[in-house]
Amino acid sequence: MIENKVWSNNPNQFVIGADEVGRGSFAGPIVGAAVKINKSHEDLLIEVKDSKKLSEKKRNEIFELISNNNVVYSISECSNNIIDEIGISEANKIVLENSIKGIYTGVEKVYVDHFKINKFSSVSLVRGEDNSKAIALASIIAKVYRDNLMKKISKNYPQYLFENNKGYGTQAHRESIEKHGLTDIHRRSFNLEPNK
Asked: What number does CATH give the domain 2-147?
C-alpha cells in the first residue's frame, strides 16, 4: 500500500484518497468521495479494500465505523442532467476535484484512482483501490452514499428496480427501459432510447 511508504517517512502525514462510483450507470448521478487518513487511523482500516470486493453489509459497517470515529471525508455528485450536458469524463473530473477540494488544506499527499487530475499535486494510481487504503476507503464511502441515494430514488420509479441495480444496465433494467421508456433520471447522452 502506498500509505506504508508515506508513513514510514512520516506517520503524521495525512493522505487523501479519492474515487468515484456510478460512471457506467445508466441512471442517477456520478458520485465522488475523498477521505483523509494518517497512521493513527490504521486500526480502522484493517478490513478496507476495493468496495467491489466487499459485501454491502461490510461496506455499511466500514462506513459506520469511519463516521463514528471522526475520519474526515467529502462527497460530491453530478446529476444525470449535468452528465448529459458536459459528458461523463468531465463530470468524473468535477466530482473528484470537488470532493478533494472539500478536505484539502495544502499539506496532504493526494492519490486518485486511475484518473488524472491536474490539481492538488495529485498522483493517479493504476488499480488505486488495490494500492491505497485511502482510495479503497473513498470507493466504499462513495458506493454506500450512492447506493443509498439510488434506493431512495427507486421509490419514485418502482418499475426500474433501482434498489437492486443502482441504475446500472442489468438485463432487468434494460427490459424496464424497453417497456416503460426513460425517466428524468436516465442519462440520455448514453443512447438508451429503446429500439422501436
From this structure: 3.30.420.10
